[in-house]
Amino acid sequence: MVKKTMPHLDPTEKQIVFKIVYFGPGMSGKTTNLLYIHRTLTDRYKGEMLVLDTEKERTLFFDFFPVSLGTVQGYSLKFHLYTIPGQIYYEASRRIILEGADGVVFVADSQADKLDENTQMFRLMMENLLSHGIDPDAFPIVLQYNKRDSNPRLKLGVIEKELGIEGMPVTESIATHGRGVMKTLQLISREIIKRFQIC
Q1: Which residues of 31-64 are buried (b: 16+ CB within 10 A; e: fewer)?
Q2: What phi and psi, each to the nearest 5 degrees, are found at residue 11?
Q3: Where does residue 125 rank: exposed (0-12), middle (13-18), buried (19+ CB within 10 A)?
Q4: How far apart are the C-alpha atoms of 91 and 112, rounded to whole Å?
Q5: Average pLDDT score over residue span 82-103
Q6: Using CA atoms, how far apart are residues 88 and 15, in angstroms rounded to an integer?
Q7: pLDDT 10s digits, 146-164
Q8: Alpha carbon of 159 to those of 50, 51, 62, 63, 136: distances in Å?
Q9: Confidence of residue 60 (pLDDT cuts 50, 70, 90)
Q10: Please, which residues have CB within 8 angstroms of residue 39's CB and are 6 or more apart in sequence?
């Protein structure tokens, strides 16, 4: 059974809370994205960064208020940002973190030899969404081609072609330099709010 995801409404605080998960293969730049975002945001609008260390990779979480997006029906907006562990054997952790997500940024590694890892992890993400009763075709997903300073690098569109998907919003980034990171966040935030207002 496919269901619609809904954000958490907090009538006491007059907040709508959305959850964004950064998904992708190991070492693709998910953590680098979140660290840059947290470093860039003003202290007034962000929570503390929480880090859960696994054997080979970290899971990060923090929340923030996107003041640039204003309010919806008198409610202020709040986003929870998470990364997932990218190693294949952390499947259970990924499923738990993805539960309740309102949107996903898939961080792809642009290095030329990483196509198989990217497509394998993307398929796992789609399977995880379906297992939570979420229709991936109607779910906000932004594909971020990270590490665009790699040489050689994957051509834009190759991941979508390999997976047979069309119409997904795509961004380019070099997360280590912060390039394209905030643009990606703005894009997924707007996609989530747009879908929420339509539902």
Answers
A1: bbbbbbbbeebeeeebbeeeeeeeeebebbbbbb
A2: -65, -25
A3: buried
A4: 25
A5: 82
A6: 35
A7: 999 999 999 999 999 999 9
A8: 31, 30, 29, 30, 16
A9: confident
A10: none
Q: Residue 12: pLDDT band by 50, 70, 90 thresholds? A: confident
The answer to whether residues 146 and 121 touch, using CB atoms and an 8 Å cutoff, is: no
Of 6-10, 148-152, 177-181, give the lowest mean pLDDT range: 6-10
The residues, ordered by sequence, that sit 6+ positions from 58 with a Cβ below 8 Å of its Cβ are 31, 51, 52, 83, 85
pTM: 0.92
- What domains can be seen in the chain, in order of their start residue? 8-198 (3.40.50.300)
Cβ atoms of 41 and 182 within 8 Å: the answer is no
Task: Determine contact, residues 137/120, Cβ cutoff 8 Å.
Answer: no
